[in-house]
Design brief:
- By secondary structure, this protein is mostly helical.
- It has two domains: 1-74, no CATH class; 75-106.
- It is built from four helices and no strands.
- α2 runs antiparallel to α3 (53-72).
- The chain starts with a helix and ends in a 7-residue tail after the last helix.
């Protein structure tokens, strides 16, 4: 696996693509993601800390599946974008929920503020 990473890293140096084309950018980003994850897994293996390797390899496999699907069908990019936007919606909803909770607590503290005393 680490030899594969080294070979893929060497090949990446000669990679040419259209930096303005979204399809090319997504393919290169996924390729880079796979390289980064495999490289990290190799470091953990080499250092004798294999506990995180399965997580990294699973993420690399997911990136590889996205890469293969996108390379086969450019429309797959729309599915990737939709999944990304869905995750952002979940994050923003949670942030909004937490902000309301935080605002409620802050307003309660302001109302009780006169009763707070420093020792």
């Amino acid at each position: 696996m680490c030899h594969l990473h080294e070979t893929a890293l060497d090949l990446a140096r000669s990679l040419h693509f259209d930096k303005e084309h979204p399809w090319h950018l997504h393919l290169v980003a996924l390729y880079g993601t796979m390289l980064e994850l495999l490289g990290s897994a190799c470091i953990l293996i080499r250092e004798g800390v294999p506990i995180g390797v399965p997580i990294l390899l699973r993420s690399a496999l997911e990136a590889n599946l996205d890469f293969m699907n996108l390379a086969k069908d450019r429309r797959y990019g729309y599915h990737m974008r939709a999944a990304e936007l869905y995750e952002w919606i979940k994050i923003l909803r949670e942030a909004k929920r937490r902000d309301k909770t935080h605002s409620f607590r802050t307003s309660r503290m302001r109302n009780k503020g006169s009763g707070l005393r420093l020792c």
